[in-house]
Amino acid sequence: MSGNAVRLQAINNVEAYIPPAISFVPGEEPGEIFGSNVFTKAEMQSRLPKAVFKSVVATIEKGTKLDPAVADSVAAAMKDWALEKGATHYAHVFYPMTGLTAEKHDSFLEPVSDGQTLAEFAGKTLIQGEPDASSFPSGGLRSTFEARGYTGWDVTSPAYVLENPNGNTLCIPTVFVSMTGEALDYKTPLLRSQQAMGVHAERILKLFGHQDLNKVVSFCGPEQEYFLVDRHFFLARPDLVNAGRTLFGAKPPKGQEFDDHYFGAVPERVLGFMMDTERELFKLGIPAKTRHNEVAPGQFEIAPMFERANIASDHQQLLMTVFKTIAKKHGMECLFHEKPFAGVNGSGKHVNFSMGNSELGSLLVPGDTPHENAQFLVFCAAVIRAVHKFAGLLRVSVASATNDHRLGANEAPPAIISIFLGEQLADVFEQIAKGAATSSKGKGTMIIGVDTLPPLPTDPGDRNRTSPFAFTGNRFEFRAPGSGQTVAVPLIVLNTIMADSLDHMATILEGAVENGEDFDTAVQKLLTDIITEHGDVVYNGDGYSEKWQIEAAERGLPNLKTTLDAIPELVKPEAVELFEKYGVFTERELHSRYEVRLEQYVLTIAVEAKLTLEIGTTVVLPAALRYQTELAQNVATLKAAGVEPNLAALEAVSAPLTDLTAALATLKSALSDHSAQSALEEAKHAQQALLPAMDAVRSAADALEGVVADDLWPLPTYQEMLYIL
Q1: In this protein, which residues make up the domain named GS catalytic (predicted)?
Q2: pTM score of the predicted model
Q3: pLDDT (average), residues 522-542
Q4: Which domains are delineated in the chain?
């Protein structure tokens, strides 16, 4: 294959790649290593005094307040365990509003007399840390000179040892708050929201006769999509290195139109990476379950099993870190951007959401006859009400400059938030709306016509991949979150809006019981009222169709197409009232998120715009000019020889070259405009001026890629990056 020196060298390096040693030792079973680097309940039980262990478990399972008196015992046991695992340092791991993971490492060693040291880790050190808070996004909650911030141990999320060739670290998941107690992170509001939802879910369960329950929590199983590219190609693309996506790149002759990558055989090199990551995930107690090729070439997916929402959120952040690290070991780069390559599918992070506890399991299991399962119908109706009433908050929970490239395309759900219930549940709720549900559509049997195959059971209804919020048998799948974001944000919103719905429904049912009304009759009336008032959010059709866009507007469903359309939802009076009522955010904390989201939007697009200008000016333009010069010299040579030259090739490169020069000038001018007086004005300038200018530069550059001689083109192409792996 032709190509310039950098591209050829990258291709040669891919060919010369030698895989690292095997991941799973022959004979080693995954169960043997699962959780081996986690300070599990079993580990605590074997190391802690019985009373201390019971106290910690009560906090985890019952939600009782943590007794500070147990901290010294837990810290000592945790330290001994970590030292046995080779840890030299400990770190409070927290999740600031960057959406990433942060940590400060401290050594276990403490100096004593005569120049000696001891390994120390006190209870107060376990419970609280103090990283500098001044340089993290705060949205006005903190000034730069106000540096004090605190981390606090989240006892419900287990500590773990993170291995590194140069030394291991004990990692302790924590919240991150300011000196005033205001949340500077995503874990704090997630825990608050989960607590609020649990309180009102338990009120409902008590009405159904359940007493003395372990606390109800939300559960999450996030499906992570990602791309892999060879690291040599990655390092030769400044846009991928700095922005996470390609700002230039012509569509290759073959994309994903054959559907031949989806669920295809996993390439050997990629499978080696997957096996390696899974072994590390297992050691960290992350229950990786499913792996497969995704739709686009070079795109893959991993899906862990359900966990408590706050643990799933922590594990999701840890998973991304592990993937990035292991990919480098295999000579690849893992891309979590929602749209790293134009023209092929982007990547999402589907949040599978349910709620329940250790005794009852999931509360969203309908059973074979859901029309008879009143408890399930109440919780399902609560979801319907919550999603309909607070669709704007769900939309803003997944809004970002990066996810704007993905949402609304035929690879991801539309920006209109609706619910897919499936044929069976839709029928049950239609019956409820008319008075009472008396039947449920049952499962069927599929006869394939091959005698050697057994009859295959079929579900009562199909799935709908075009729905942003779909019921899938025992959970709701929120398909709109982007692959690079933290799942904590949509989980915070889901927990809070569910708290509101469950509170509303529990209050009505409790009032009916107090007034001596028949409970079953009260439930039936409540369900009828909810589906009548909020049923417009249920849609089982094609979410990609133009017809749905029109129908959704007629139903009054919001269509917040871009991040800037969605962000104001955060600070509407009804949002402030909701989050304050359930103790999830104060008004100041909510406004801080609004400011941070605007700032991140502006910074993301500004970096991309600067990169577009730089690469367009210093990489693409010189290559095109060289080729134009070659062609012009060829024309001159032919004319001098008395041969009439064909000017088609010269004209083909000159037209987009003129367009590129003009587009770069426009982009440079847009970048130099600093007239915005507020974060919102800056964001609007980024959306209305920078993005169109970047698109114009890309359009001209991609046209040039199709006509400039291959040996002069400097950037690795889509054809190379997506297929040479």
Answers
A1: 197-620
A2: 0.95
A3: 96
A4: 33-184 (3.10.20.70), 195-599 (3.30.590.10)
